[in-house]
Amino acid sequence: MKKLLLPVLVTVAVCLLTGLKAVPVCAQTSAEEYFVAGVEFFEGKNYTAAATAFEKAVEIKPDYEDARFNLAVTYWTQKQYQKAAATLEELIQRNPESEVGKQAAQELEKLKKSGIFAKEEEEKVEAEVSPTATRNLEDSIADLRYGITSRRKEAALNLSNIAKSKPSAEVMDQIVDELVRAAFNNQDKLAVRETAVESLSLIFHPRALSAVDRAISGSAFPIKSRFKFLVALKQQGTSEAYRIILKYWVVKEWPLDPEVFPMDIMRKEWPPELGDSIMEQMNKLLGKDEMLAILMSAWPGGVETTYKTVPDGLKDYVAYYALMVGQLGGREAATLLVQRLKED
Q1: Do 133 and 154 touch, CB atoms closer than 8 A?
Q2: Whole-angstrom Cα distance, residue 148 to residue 159?
């Protein structure tokens, strides 16, 4: 990591900070005075006090680039690498074209390439993810972005726990944004991405549900992972979640795109938690009319057209779902069922 950025003038009287906690002893201390004190503390190897001084400088003057850069240097020196990276990233976001912003980008790139966030010895014994672990929002976001695999998975679940505590709309949006970013970062490890989607599945939020639907509908995740996302949605227990479940429950016997939904796996390994028994719960939450609309949406052109076009091996399945449609009040299903009985 680069050395500290030094103040232009270092002759400012330091009536500022005392002790490791850096308690102000002057009535009104400026950001520049905290900056000078931070440099002096750092050079005296009192890194805790230096960090506090730079933090105060940034608090007073958020656009103080030199102070924010020095804060990252101090965190790095203290081996608080996640905080260092988060501080550099914020600096870059604020002003990527400034000289200090460009320096921060270079240092952040070095930090990411250093392997610090994926130490071999830590990766070998990946800790069991605890869904009840509680860490604050800022630390969880830093862990999700920069931690080793186990910490990142834990952070994703921590964020879903924070979301369940009914935070402000702003915090909820921030949580969803971070989880969506992690879920669809194709350069990331699959284990982290899967945990991010599972965490989104547990959050009642329009963009979270949309992201989960997107994860299930495409081929970015293995089919068995997508089953897990559907089971997680069931845990949410909302009508919005059940709409997504029903959409895929309908096509499990004859996927419209076998490459995205391999038929043999869809039939043999469909989660038992999402069997026919959930229909009663869906009916309670969605009502017959909406369930009928979702079931019928799987058959472009209607039940009879679908029955005529599917392979013979699938006709019984179409007839079975037609029976369900009939139970929900779908009239055209009756004609198809009579036809099937005649064929038998």
Answers
A1: yes
A2: 16
Helix axes 279-286, 239-250, angle to 10 degrees: 130
Query: pLDDT tens for residues 268-304?
Result: 777 888 776 777 777 777 776 777 666 666 555 555 5
At 141 the three-state DSSP class reads helix
Q: Give dist(CA 145, CA 185) in Å, integer.
A: 11
Q: pLDDT tens, 128-182?
A: 334 433 457 888 888 888 777 888 899 999 999 999 888 899 999 999 999 999 9
Cβ neighbour number for residue 262 with a 10 Å cutoff:
14
Helix (H, G, I), strand (E, B) or coil at 211: helix
Let me know: does 240 contact 225? Beta carbons within 8 Å. Answer: no
pTM: 0.53
Q: What are residue 24's DSSP bridge partners?
A: 17
The label of the residue with tokens 């944004």 reads 177
47 contacts 55 by C-beta, under 8 angstroms: no
Residue 200 CA to residue 232 CA, distance in Å, equals 9
Q: Please name which of 59, 62, 63 lies closest in space to residue 24, comparing C-alpha atoms.
A: 59
